[in-house]
Amino acid sequence: MKILLTGGAGYIGSHTAVELIKAGHSVVIIDNLINSSEDVIKNIKRITGTEISFYKLDLRDDFSCVFSGHVFDACIHFAGLKAVGESVSLPLRYYNNNLISTLNLIKTLENHNCKNIIFSSSATVYGTPAEIPITEQCPKGTCTNPYGWTKWVIEQILTDLHVSDPSWNIVILRYFNPVGAHQSGLIGESPKGIPNNLMPYITQVASGRLEKLHIFGNDYETPDGTGIRDYIHVVDLAKGHVAALKALKKSSENQTSDDNGLLSVYNLGTGRGYSVLEMVNTFEKVNGLKVPYVIEGRRAGDIGICYSDPSKARRELNWKAEYGLEEMCRDSWNWEKNK
Ligand code: NAD
Ligand code: UD1
Fold first, then answer.
1. Which are the catalytic amino acids?
2. What is the distance in A from the centroid of ligand 2 to the CA of 159?
3. Which atom of ligand 1 is nearest to the CA of 101?
4. How far is 327 from 233, CA to CA, in rounded Å?
5. CB under 6 Å to ligand 1: residues?
6. What percent of the chain is modeled with pLDDT above 90?
7. I want to staple 176 with a disulfide (CB 3.0 to 4.6 A). Which of 59, 189, 269, 331 is the partner?
8. H/E element holding 266?
9. In this predicted model, what pLDDT tens digit does every residue of 285-332 receive, in sequence order?
10. What pTM did the predictor assign?
């Protein structure tokens, strides 16, 4: 299949590009490089040995030129701004970028008769989860920040779109906490400025770029008091998209009328939670490094425990995460030290 990847130069998009090519698909990437660089495209080529069609374009502009050279079977929509804290101080920037680009994308795909889309959503739509492990049915729509709201509103837009035109095939993927990097060490996550997320903070402390890790709270109701999350290796996450695409393809090939397209939502996580201290200890053990830390108060807006029930994806997509915490820590460090 020929797949349009929006935001394909980013962290998750680049790993997905590699896995799609490995699975025999061809990819075309649109990215405005606001949070990535053209080197990523070169490194996808190096890993896969395949030429990549890349367009440096903003999805909010007219990008129909891309369709003059390609006929797409499906689109995977990664593009968006994703920094939670920044979204609180710059909400309009987030609503503008994430919503306008998605609306423009849907219209453009429709104009070119491509009605198959996979959307990158987030566990953030569950807000403070009503149940653990979190199933897809868990209550949603109580987001705590503008970034989260953009994800929830886009899910709603896609659902409404499917009601109005059921010939669309739509898969919504809710990611838990992606970490790690491609084993080659050529692509990975490159947060700008001081990282907000745990793993990039740990790797930057290990490399000496940051002095010590600040652990936000050790008084949660967890075995060691620190917060628990469902970390998932980004390569496993990328493979989840290949599996979702298979389901999309099957649905679109079996479509006998204009009203039986697919609308499905899946959690992509491991189903296993690890605490902050478990992350630090495993990172130190696997890589033979020290990660100095101090315990601080809780971070505003944080929850104690968050992990997925990924059984729906296993049942329906025949996908499950394979990598464990040790590989996540090893590959995160391999990327950091090669940067
Ligand atoms: P990323 O920032 O690395 O990648 C997003 C890419 O989109 C970047 O390369 C950026 O330049 C591009 N982009 C942004 N706005 C654009 C626009 N208007 N036009 C064209 N390109 C644009 O982020 P990521 O971690 O790879 O995340 C990919 C998607 O997954 C995002 O939608 C994000 O919200 C979602 N997600 C990420 C996480 C995570 O922890 N990384 C968790 C849940 C959901
Ligand atoms: C964050 C985002 C969430 C997003 C998710 C995955 C916030 C409030 N939420 O959630 O929207 O979907 O990433 O990208 O930012 N921690 C420390 N010290 C640090 C950093 C983190 O102790 O320097 C702890 C946190 O308190 C938490 C755990 O590590 O217990 C994981 O934090 P983080 O990586 O930021 O992910 P989330 O909080 O799950």
1. 147
2. 28
3. 18
4. 8
5. 7, 9-13, 30-36, 58-60, 78-82, 97, 101, 120, 122, 175, 178
6. 92
7. 269
8. strand 263-268
9. 999 999 999 999 999 888 999 999 999 999 999 999 999 999 999 999
10. 0.98
